[in-house]
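Re: the 78-residue chain
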Amino acid sequence: MHPSALKKVAEAQRKRTMALAESLPALVGKFEFASWEKAKIVPAVLSLVPGRFKFYDEVPIIPVLQFNDFINQLPAYA
């Protein structure tokens, strides 16, 4: 993926993640996470192929074949 396209994708994902985080308080009574004391939301981009970037502006770029490893190591990324 071209770096300028990756930048747009990562920035859009960051904005979507921030919008989700801002809307969570209104959803507390509707979902199971209502009993959670806190949650951390991490923006990430899932890619079909490995690229030359692992992160763009602190947004992880994860090849689909490495998704399981990313999830297992998520506490280290967060």
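The chain has one domain: 3-77.
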